[in-house]
Amino acid sequence: MTHFVKKALADIRLNRFLNLITIITISLSILVVSVFLLFFENASRVIESWNQGGRAMIYLKSDFSLDMLPDLKAKINALGDIDDMVFISKTQAIDKLKKEMSSRTTFLETLNENPLPDALEIRIKTYNSFEEVQKFAQSIKKIEIVEEVEYGQGWLGKFLKIFNLFKITGYGMCTLFFLIALFITANTVRLAFYSRKIEVEVMRLVGATETFIKAPFYVEGLLQGFFGGILGLMVLLITYLSVSSGIDQSLASYIYFDIRFLSLKIILLIIFGSTFLGWFGCYLSLKQILK
Amino acid sequence: MTMDVNNFEDMNDTNNKNLTIRLFNVNKRYGGKFALKGINLDIEQGEFIFISGPSGAGKSTLLKVLYLAEKVSEGQILIEGMNLARISSSKLPFLRRRFGMVFQDFKLIPNRTVYENVALVLEAAGAKSSFVKKKVMQVLRTVGMDKKFKALPPTLSGGEQQRVAVARAVVGDPSIILADEPTGSLDSKSAQLILDFLMEYHKKGATVLIASHNLHLLQSTVRGRNVEISEGTINRTATML
Ligand SMILES: Nc1ncnc2c1ncn2[C@@H]1O[C@H](COP(=O)(O)OP(=O)(O)OP(=O)(O)O)[C@@H](O)[C@H]1O
Ligand SMILES: [Mg+2]
After folding, report:
1. Dist CA B238 CA B241 (whole Å)
2. Is B79's pLDDT higher than 70?
């Protein structure tokens, strides 16, 4: 094994330029992919925090009366996994509001009738995405006595649509760059193979097995993929560090938005992915050459 | 002459255990042209064989069909009891490890050093690196190329390249050595050294086949059997003393 690694390293050194181009191409692709991942990881987290961890307000119609409450609770519970459910009567709501606003205005005191609806505040126990919350809310809305379900669907929903559009673009870009990197890697292996045509021929003649002949190419592909991945992530990290230190801290806290770097899991996944890319490019091209 | 192929193999197993190479009615055609035609040849274990004949006679082709660089068009070949027609591609490398070949065009890898070129044979066979180092340097010393072990083949003279090619052929201690014009680029003194060198392996029990049109040199140095071919057929075989 060390023999093959040594050989592959020697070959990379020998074909410095070609290998450098390949590694840079792979790292660029990895950079594009990881920028998208960075964006999505952060955006999802921010959406979650804006959504306050799956919280939703259920506003009830005015003909609701307290004796309907147990039946309603049962219905909602049947729809999904609810963490906790708090009933807030319109009286409680207006009192709370009055307390909060008393220092500023006496407007509420002048009202004859309570304009607020009865409400239930719920928190959904397990949910993976904003879409799940959305679906759940829609099914609650179908219950007779429910007037409206509030979970920030208005502007958050619109943001989500844009976000999803980004996501699709992201997937498309990632696929495109993956294919480009794959093509370049496969091509490099092909060139390396042809530049070593005599060597391969001689190896066959002196009794080398196909595995022995192919192994250095695979090691080379794996190394290219691995180093390409590391390089791409390093560029991303450096960019991230210089950008995030430049962001105005008060602005960041105001919009509740601190950009975090990729999680370790994603980093390992990216490196694994790019290494696989190197291997796969090699596999494709050797399969084609050694038909 | 007709002979059942299976019968032919049985004969090898029962009566002629010391036969290492057998060719039976071998034809090799390139396009419509015969490079080998009706070759029948039995070679015993440990024989020293010259294959002589003019340029284009089919000497190289005869060696090539033995290690399956070329497939025969018709006929059968047995190597140490194995029928070449029945060797799968996964077994082919193991067949080739029994041979040590000196190619007419040397086939040295230009961007690998002398050492790496010779070591390749042992590495391909999975030898330990400590053993490879010792063995390669020892063989290079005997052909007088140990001082240039770091050189790249294109920087060597034709004769030097040829000596590296010979070193590579014998480094794996093969049971059969096939040498195609192994002295072609050498002066008579160096040629003599190489022949003596191959003779050493013959004395140790290896079967040696040398193809050369320079019969004069060969005849004057060693004894063995001369197989003379022209236009793809064996003209005559003669045992020299
Ligand atoms: N790959 C090939 N394709 C077509 N014809 C070939 C091929 N190899 C050899 N031949 C032909 O087969 C015949 C025998 O060639 P071979 O190389 O065996 O001769 P040789 O005896 O080794 O000659 P020399 O002494 O010049 O090396 C020649 O006529 C040659 O042109
Ligand atoms: Mg020849």
Report:
1. 10
2. yes
- Average model confidence (pLDDT) for chain A? 80
Mean pLDDT of chain B: 87
Point out the ligand 1 atom lying closest to the alpha carbon of residue B213: 25
Q: Alpha-carbon torsion A16, A22, A27, A32, what sign?
A: positive
Does residue B38 belong to any structural domain of this protein? no
Query: Is the same domain home to A210 and A245?
Result: yes
Q: Which chain A residues contact residue B95 at CB under 8 A?
A: 207
Q: Is residue A161 part of a domain?
A: no
Average pLDDT over residues B151-177: 94
Give me the number of domains chain A comprises: 2
DSSP A262: P
Interface test with A, best of B98, B120, B128 (most A CBs within 10 A): B120
- Note down the domain range covering A81: 55-150
pLDDT in tens, A213-272: 999 889 988 998 999 999 999 999 998 888 777 665 555 555 555 677 888 888 999 999
Name residues whose C-beta falls within 8 Å of residue B188's C-beta, 6 or more positions apart in sequence.
Answer: B217
d(CA B126, CA B121): 9
Chain A hits for B93, Cβ within 8 Å: 204, 207-209
Distance, CA of A170 to CA of B150 (rounded, Å): 52
Residue A163 domain-assigned (yes or no): no
Q: Spell out, as residue ranges, where chain A has pLDDT lower than 70.
A: 1, 47-54, 102-109, 125-130, 152-158, 246-258, 291
Number of domains in chain B: 1
**Residue B227, domain extent:** 45-68+89-240
- What's the one-letter identity of residue A196? R
What local confidence, expressed as pLDDT, does residue B166 receive?
Answer: 94
pTM comes to 0.73
Residue whose CA is at the smallest distance from ligand 1 atom 17 = B60
Name the residue with the closest Cα to ligand 1, atom 3. B30
